[in-house]
Amino acid sequence: MMSALEGIGIAGSEYLRETLTNCRDPINAIEEFQMDNGILLPSLRLALPLLDLHGISRLDFHLSVFEELRDKLVSRITTLANSSDERRYTIIEDLLEKNFTLLQLQSVRPVVLVLMKYLPMIPNRYLEPFIVDKDLYMEAPIEVKQQIWQDNQQLFGDEVSPLFSQYIKNKDALLYAVDSQAQFSFFNLPPKTRRQDEIVQKLTSMVGKNVRLYEMMLQFLRTLFLRTRNIHYCSLRAELLMSLHDLEMHDVCTVDSCHKFCWCLDACIREKFVDTKRARELQGFLDSIRRGNDQVLGDLAMILCDPYAVNTISNSAIKLLHQMAQNETLPRESSDLLLLMRMLQLGLDAWQMIDSQTYREHKVNNDLCVKFLPSIMYFMVDDQIRSVEARYLLQRQQIAASGDSNKPTLDPIETPKQSSEPVPPGFLRGIAENNIATTLAGNYLCYLCQKHNKHTLMKVLPAVLEAEPDLIHNEIFLHSFTTSLLAMRDEFVNEDFCVFILDDILMSAVSNDNVRRQILRLVFYICHKLPPVRRDTLTDKLQPLNEHSQAIHDFYAKLMDKIQSLNTSLTTTASAVVDIETPELDSPLRSVPTPAHTSL
Model's pTM, two decimal places? Predict the structure, then answer.
């Protein structure tokens, strides 16, 4: 290590060995070496004996001075790099050239690394030792690693691959997360909160202002999405771009043709609705794609395939259909709704588009707008009719109960008629043939749960699953559906609703591990509403076997702990009630005589 000092003209171990070998007086040679290479400060030499009296070795003293000087040098280099001096990078490169040989000296290495950190273009001869020496590579600042990665794609891939894998694991874990204090929904996390995730922030820092690294990372995400079909990579693609946007990395953001589109869509996701103004902006971006630049459609499709984007667009479509049902307009007359269908089509075609390298939009199926969407409006109108009939019946009951003779005579009170008409065939055919219809149907089922619409839910849900049986195995839909069911938790006190949701729908697919975990999650939140017999039956059926994953075993144990705590609480409450209602028989008041009754 000391040979590094000799490379810059400072006497080192070789000089000292040669001197001690050839000298006649070693003690005198050592003193001369100390005089020549010590701190050249005359007043300090008088103070050194005082340090000896305090037991402070010369090594400790010189190391402390060295560390102080090193920190001051690093501070001055940082100040120079951040200054407006036009020659700053030339000065830094000259210093690096003179001191690079000290890189192998551990104590001086921080100075060399900070010089490299602030050099925008590091010559390859300075980067090669970092590629060969793993320890040096691990100590290098992120700015130095960025310049290594941009010419070494495999090394960059090795760095980001574990982060990608952990990101996917975290997203999967969110789908099954439970919170003892409040119900958790995958889609309740605001976009900015998601971008503050540790992994997203680390990936953002790895890219920095380096356009080449950003393009390499996007290519990694496309490849992984193509290989796995995991839509969470689409989420990461959008979150990475918006994280760079938040940090005002304009050099990188302006290179991405999807930047403004993603920015506008991110605002829609934040507000959970695509309003008319933003719909016009999004349509303008889509319409502005020129021929010859069709490949940008692949990136736009990935951004629109993000589950958060699909959920926002689908929910916006359901809200628009509800407004049109009230305003008595048709789906094909709404340009906003047609744009939402266009974006859904583009997002759901993302994998096929990237796989085939055929970058063109597919037209939205005409039957979707003239048959499927009107079928959803049919259900909404039917719900409005039943609501009006229920209010009318309530008014008649109140009049009859008041017994007011001045009121006009009414016909006998009848129960509101429940619609027994079958589900429209256009609704079922659309689900079976069109992935947009399947996605909208799933969001409509969640909408019914949130509106506490038990009647229509029990009518539509079996029809949807009959037309598309695989929907129950979709992780995103299953999470949204079970979370939406929590809005109807009071209905689970009724056996008919328990049989319908738990036995007929969910437990029929319990052999799938994802379904089992979502059932456990649902029961975790509603167990206090379930009748004791139903609760015990469910826990017996859901008890995991040896072949089930450890995650299922842990989830089941957490559920049983909550049920045990619930049973203990109920037992304690019941005992307290009995103690209040039953006075103690050995009370001292029982021995006090009752005063005799005296008549006045």
Answer: 0.85
